[in-house]
């Protein structure tokens, strides 16, 4: 069996790749370098030119060949490698007539617990979303507890407003649900430290990305001064970066994105590094249906996999991109038994959603400077 063709599809903000072997077997993957998907698409096409005629089953070799070819690094490259690696594993699963989780060590759990992301902005919308999540049977939620006008809030009001949202959501869901708190890198160390102290009594499951991921040393400084479990890693790409975050920051959860952290080949290794430090994996997920399916495959076979980020996938554009989304049942994602990753692209559905550049300018403070720090 040899690789015959590479295809890419940019739909809305999602970048998909499909690789076809000369026997007709196809595999799919998703890149989550969603800010600039054309960059990853260009790299995928370049790798396709190098890889046509190669054996698709040599996943470890191909990963190293792509990563070491020019010694460049970064998110565009990582997004391309992740998508290609997923597609090659999808082909491998179909070739051996086994789900990817079976090829990666076999099932360690019967289902994967979903952590639904609360939607809406501001206290009332987040409380309503939390109540709906509880009614729908989820046992874990995640929220970003910022008021809509947070960039122009003064320090005391910002800390108080964020704390009030956490208090209101905890009151709504009670104590039988886990609550992750994501800062989205919107604070600097002193703000994050004080905020963490204010919400300790509400027992968050984790505090995620309290500051920008630019400095491992700064993240370690924050973790030394807070008493909440720290979750980091959604913008990191390789085992070498994760090793430093795991060891230097003393974090409690790592958050690799399977489609940005190197696909199946590499994220399984990242999880092993974390496991050796008694840390768990709560993978980041840009929430495309292919990336979600890949996460479920890893969740099935990875002992320290914990929660899976989730949004309701049936709504467009996500629900249109594949023929059938991963099944959700009673707050848990069902582990598929089908060969490969368990989903297939829907070309007609994808055609309904042309490329859309994600996001506008970053939020600004009242002096006109960028609020994201």
Mind explaining what this structure looks like?
It is a single chain. This protein has helices at 37-51, 59-68, 75-95, 100-103, 123-135, 155-173, 189-199, 216-225, 239-249, 263-275, 289-301, 318-321, 347-350, and strands at residues 3-11, 14-21, 26-31, 111-117, 140-143, 178-182, 206-208, 230-232, 253-254, 280-281, 308-310, 328-329, 332-334. The longest helix has 21 residues, at 75-95. The model has no long low-confidence stretch (mean pLDDT 94). The chain folds into 2 domains: 3-99, 2-Layer Sandwich (Enolase-like, domain 1), CATH 3.30.390.10; 101-341, Alpha-Beta Barrel (TIM Barrel). It is globular, with a radius of gyration of 20 Å. α1 (37-51) packs across α3 and α3 packs across α10 (263-275). The protein has 373 residues and is an alpha/beta fold.
């Amino acid at each position: 069996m040899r690789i015959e063709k590479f295809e890419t599809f940019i739909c809305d903000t999602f970048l998909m790749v499909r690789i076809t072997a000369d026997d007709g077997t196809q595999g799919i993957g998703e890149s989550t370098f969603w800010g600039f998907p054309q960059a990853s698409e260009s790299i995928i096409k370049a790798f396709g030119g190098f890889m046509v005629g190669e054996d698709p089953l040599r996943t470890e070799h191909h990963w190293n060949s792509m990563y070491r070819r020019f010694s460049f690094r970064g998110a565009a490259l990582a997004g391309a490698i992740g998508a290609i690696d997923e597609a090659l594993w999808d082909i491998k699963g179909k070739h051996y007539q086994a789900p990817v989780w079976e090829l990666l060590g076999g099932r360690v759990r019967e289902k994967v617990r979903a952590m639904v992301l609360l939607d809406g902005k501001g206290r009332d919308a987040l409380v309503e979303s939390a109540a709906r999540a509880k009614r729908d049977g989820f046992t874990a939620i995640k929220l970003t507890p910022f008021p809509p006008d947070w960039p122009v809030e003064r320090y005391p009001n910002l800390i108080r407003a964020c704390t009030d949202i956490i208090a209101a959501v905890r009151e709504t869901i009670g104590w039988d649900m886990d609550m992750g708190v994501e800062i989205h890198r919107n604070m600097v160390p002193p703000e994050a430290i004080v905020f963490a102290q204010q919400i300790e009594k509400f027992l968050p499951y984790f505090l995620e990305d309290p500051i920008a991921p630019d400095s491992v040393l700064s993240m370690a400084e924050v973790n030394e001064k807070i008493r909440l479990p720290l979750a980091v890693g959604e913008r990191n790409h390789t085992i070498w970066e994760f090793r430093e975050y795991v060891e230097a920051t003393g974090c409690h959860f790592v958050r690799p994105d399977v489609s940005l952290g190197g696909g199946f080949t590499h994220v399984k290794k990242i999880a092993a590094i974390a496991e050796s430090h008694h840390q768990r994996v709560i993978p980041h997920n840009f929430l495309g249906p292919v990336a979600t399916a890949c996460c479920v495959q890893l969740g099935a076979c990875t002992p320290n996999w914990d929660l899976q980020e989730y949004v309701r996938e049936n709504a467009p554009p996500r629900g249109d991109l594949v023929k059938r989304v991963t099944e959700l049942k009673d707050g848990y994602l069902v582990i598929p038994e089908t060969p490969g990753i368990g989903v297939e692209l829907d070309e007609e559905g994808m055609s309904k959603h042309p490329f859309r550049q994600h996001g506008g300018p970053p939020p600004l403070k009242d002096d006109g400077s960028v609020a994201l720090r």
